[in-house]
Amino acid sequence: MAEAERIIGTPESPDGAEAEPEQSSGPQGQEGGEARPKGKRRIAVLFAVAAFAYALDLISKMLVVAKLEHHEPIEIIGDWLKFEAIRNAGAAFGFGEAFTVIFTVIAAAVIVVIARLARKLYSLPWAIALGLLLGGALGNLTDRIFRSPGVFEGAVVDFIAPKHFAVFNLADSAIVCGGILIVLLSFKGLDPDGTVHKD
Q1: What is the pLDDT, as a whole number, of residue 135?
Q2: Is the pLDDT of residue 188 over 80?
């Protein structure tokens, strides 16, 4: 019986040693049992960054509306940088004021896409980039929904006013920083699932 088990039981490698059972691997060669918790940590980072960016934007706008709106601008660095409350019905940096509803729909679509991408997220840099995009999109979408003149047509509160440049807010900054980071990651060939490709 033992002789039969030796002949037909355990597969052997070419050098006669017993072959190790194969293990499935996740992104970046990690074992399946480790990839899932790591993916969950990346998702947690994404939403933590988004919550932080959203909270900063929301608090800053509340302060601007309460303390700065209908008042003279505050000079931060002479004429080069001021805090000036502006209501913006357009996109980031004041573009496209006639398409407020369209920009609202686009912001909502971006949030949905990011939420779907999160399920396949294993890259920390991508988690940070998408978190910035999500927090910024949520910040401006909140204004679109809840501020006057009406639901989905609300004007975004902008207040950072550099000289010779459009007035913007922290949500716009988060979106731009997230977008730049995504471009850099794409040039490096790093995908959201943690794999690296070379064209």
Answers
A1: 96
A2: yes
Burial class (CB in 10 A: 0-12, 13-18, 19+), 47: middle
> Which pLDDT value is given to residue 15?
47
Place of tokens 């009406």: 150
Beta bridge partners of 196: 190
Exposed, middle or buried: residue 169 (CB in 10 Å: 0-12, 13-18, 19+)? buried
State pLDDT tens for residues 170-185.
999 999 999 999 999 9
Q: Is there a catalytic annotation at residue 191?
A: no
Catalytic option among 158, 191, 193, 199: 158
Long-range contacts of 179-186, Cβ-Cβ distance < 8 Å, separation of 24 or more: 179/129, 179/133, 181/125, 181/128, 181/129, 181/132, 182/126, 182/129, 182/130, 182/133, 185/123, 185/125, 185/126, 185/129
Distance CA 127, CA 44 (A): 9
Catalytic residue, from 57, 79, 143, 172: name it: 172
pTM comes to 0.75
- 172 included as an active-site residue: yes
